[in-house]
Amino acid sequence: MRTSIRRRPVLAAALTAALAAVLAAGTAAPTVSAVAAPARADEPGRHDDALAPRLYVISPSSDPDTITTWSTISVLDPRTQQVTKQIPTLGFKPHKFYPIPGRNIAYITHFGGPGTPAAIEVFDMVRNEVVGTIPTGGDGPRHMGFSPDYRHGYTANLDGGSISDIDVAAGRTVRTVPTGKKPNYIRYVETRAGPRLFVVNFGEDTMTVLEARTLAPIATVTVGNGPYSLIATPDQREVITANARDNTVTFVDAVSLKVRATVPIGGVHEPIPNNVQRLNLRISPEGRWLWVGNQDASVMSIVDLPSRRLVTQIPAGRGADIAFFPAEGPAKGYALVTSRYDYFVVVAKLNGQQPPTFVKRINQTARGSHFITFDEDFEKGYLSQRPGGAFSVLDLASLTTIADSVPVGPSPEQATYVWFEHGVARFHLEH
Length: 431
Hints:
Layout: E1 4-5, H1 15-25, E2 54-59, E3 72-77, E4 82-88, E5 94-100, E6 105-110, E7 119-124, E8 129-135, E9 141-146, E10 152-157, E11 162-167, E12 172-178, E13 183-191, E14 194-201, E15 206-211, E16 217-222, E17 227-232, E18 238-243, E19 248-253, E20 259-264, E21 279-283, E22 289-294, E23 299-304, E24 309-315, E25 320-324, E26 334-339, E27 344-351, E28 354-363, E29 372-374, E30 380-385, E31 390-395, E32 400-407, E33 415-421, E34 424-428
Antiparallel strand pairs: 1-34, 2-3, 2-33, 3-4, 5-6, 6-7, 7-8, 9-10, 10-11, 11-12, 13-14, 14-15, 15-16, 17-18, 18-19, 19-20, 21-22, 22-23, 23-24, 25-26, 26-27, 27-28, 29-30, 30-31, 31-32, 33-34
C-alpha cells in the first residue's frame, strides 16, 4: 500500500549531545537524547530553501561487512542531482531511512555487531541534522514496522534476537522482548482477534506472534526454512512469509495461526557468489497477485492469492528484487521491478484479474538496483544502485532513464524523496 503523508515537527538537539548520551547509556537507557525546541520549515526568517524538495541518500548503508568508515547522509537537490549538505551518522553502520508521518523526523536503523551501539538515530528533516538516538536494548535494529497511526515503531533486532517497541511521541523504547533467532522483518496486523505483531525469524524456520499493545507472546509458528520477509493480505486475514532457504512462501491464518499452504516459488536457482538469497514480497494494487523477488532464479514469481498458486514468472535480471507500483501519474498500471546485480529495471504491465506481463527494460550504466522513491506527482522515480554506488532518475511518462547513474558514494541502500507543504514534510510510503 502506498500513501502520501503529512507531518508535524518534533525533536531537535545537538549532535555532540546525542553521541555522548548514547555512549554513556549503552543499551540500557531507553531514552532519546533529543530535548531542544522542535524545528519547523515555515518558521519566521527561514530561507525558502528549507521548503525545497530534497532527496536523502545514506552511503554506505548496505552490506555491513564493507562499512569500515563513517557513513554520510547526503541531501541532494532532486532537480539538479547536486549535493546540498552532508551529515555524518555518528559512527554507526546505517541501513534504512524511515520518515515518520506527521513529525518531520526520520528514524535511521542500523546493522549490529561489535562496537555498534544498539540504537537508532533520530534525523530532523527540516534542519537536516542528526538530533538524537534511541537505544533499543537489542543489537542490530535494521528493519522496522509501525502501527497504523505511527504512534509506535517496532525494531526487529537481528543480532539481539528480540524486538523493541518505541513510543514515537515520547522518543523512547517502551520495552524489548525476545523472539527467535535473527528476527528480520516485523508487521503490525489488525486481525479479527485484535492487533498482533508478526516477526519472521530468519535464523530458524519460525514466525513469532505477539500481542501488539503489550508484546505478550501468543505463539511460535513453524513456516518454511529461513523466513526472510513477510506481508499481510489486503483483508488482514492471512500473513505470508517468504522462506529464503527452501524458496517457498507460507500462508498463515492471522487469527488461528494455522498454516494454510506452503507454495514453491519456482525457477532454476543459480546461487549468486557471496550472496544470501533474499525474497522481498509485494502485493499489487488490485489485491490479487503476490510478487516475490526471487533473486537466485532471476525472476519475479507471481502467486495468485485466491488459489495460493504460482501462475507465472517475469524475467527480472540477476538478483530480481522488489516490485514498485506508482499509485498515480503516467506509470499507474505498471510495475517497476529492481534487479540487485544487473544493469536495468524491468517494466511489467498490470492486467487486473489476469496475470501481469513483461513490457521492457530501462537500462542504466551502473550495476544493481534496489529501491525506487517517487516525486510528488509520480512523474519521476529515483533509483538506488547499491553495487554501482549511484542513483538514476527515471522518467515515468516515457519509461526511460533521464539521469543515468549519478555517483553518490559506495553502497547506497535507498533514496528517499521528501517535499514540504506549509512546513509539513510529505512523502510517498512504500510497503
